[in-house]
Design brief:
With about 290 residues, the protein is an alpha/beta fold. It folds into 2 domains: about 100 residues, Roll (Ubiquitin-like (UB roll)), CATH 3.10.20.10; about 130 residues, Cytidine Deaminase, domain 2. Helix content is about 25%, strand content about 25%. The chain is built from 9 helices and 12 strands. Helix 7 runs parallel beside helix 8 and helix 8 packs parallel to helix 9. The longest helix has 14 residues. The chain is globular and about 55 Å long.
Length: about 290
């Protein structure tokens, strides 16, 4: 009997789609005192993605194509519109693959027996384009976000050696960044420091939505996981982490004041400037205990 291809085990994460959909070639010349010959270079793709629910627009964000369904799931969870992947029925790109602009609009339907809250939809609906560097643009009030974040209970103890080494673990696992040098990354590590999921995108908040969505797709979003981001930590990064139930957020760069305030409220250990074996701890340092 011929060998059958091995099936992907349940809840396993597929490979990210960023490399195959998010990189294109463009002409470029290098300059080193004189302009050199023209060749080409690999660049990260930046394109709009519109999310629609029942035909009505919800948000348009500038993102790197790839893992669009995961991005949508992570966004919906962060906005409090869904509780898990089973609340979503279908995620379908509109049109046909040969249509111009195909892949830039994603239609979302609710899962069986689940009704999306109209008031929550209206609060989440953003009338302006969300750029790659801005996640909260178009929001009526930042208070809408704060009200959704419950005060967190005491979370698990964490090994600081795992946290301080997490950004290097993330950096070594960025395939699209290695080729373009122009992508943010978000990863999730467990208590042993194992990288459980990775996503890359031209936008920091999109990368977080993608990595959360990938874990939702695999039903592997467990308590005690740590979110690792390649840049600074904004309010929205911490908000997304709180909605996903992460125990900690670790970043290569620093946090904003509002990010620190929210992490304190949500019970999240927040660390910044994690590099070369050092990091700053901004909230809940009492939970860092080396094994």
């Amino acid at each position: 009997m011929p060998n059958q291809p091995a099936e992907r085990p349940p809840n396993a994460l597929p490979s990210p789609q960023t490399v195959e959909r998010g990189i294109e070639r463009r002409a470029r010349a290098s300059y080193d005192g004189t302009l050199g010959a023209w060749g080409d270079d690999e660049l990260v793709v930046e394109a709009p993605l519109s999310l629609r629910i029942a035909g009505e627009p919800l948000v348009t964000t500038m993102r790197t194509p790839g893992d669009d369904e995961a991005l949508a799931l992570g966004f919906l969870l962060a906005e409090g519109l869904i509780r898990g992947v089973r609340d979503v029925g279908t995620l379908t790109h509109c049109g046909r693959p040969d249509d111009e602009g195909w892949g830039n609009t994603l239609e979302i339907t609710a899962g069986p027996g689940f009704v999306l809250d109209p008031e929550a939809l209206e609060t989440s609906r953003r009338g302006t384009l969300v750029s790659a560097s801005c996640g909260v643009c178009g929001r009526r009030s930042i208070d809408d976000l704060m009200r959704r974040i419950p005060r967190g209970a005491t979370g698990p103890s964490l090994d600081p050696r795992i946290l301080v080494g997490a950004p290097e673990t993330l950096r070594r696992a960025q395939p699209a960044f290695a080729r373009t040098g122009a992508l943010h990354a978000a990863g999730v590590v467990d208590g042993a420091g194992t990288l459980r999921a990775l996503a890359e995108d031209v936008g920091r908040h999109n990368a977080v939505d993608k990595v959360v969505g990938r874990l939702l797709q695999a039903e592997a979003l467990d308590p005690g996981l740590v979110l690792v981001v390649s840049g600074r930590t904004s309010f929205e990064i911490v908000q997304k982490a709180a909605m996903a139930g992460f125990a900690a957020v670790v970043a290569v760069s620093g946090p904003s004041t509002l990010a620190v305030d929210l992490a304190e409220r949500a019970g999240i250990v927040l660390c910044g400037f994690a590099r070369d074996g050092r990091m700053n701890v901004y909230t809940h340092g009492e939970r860092l205990q080396a094994a």
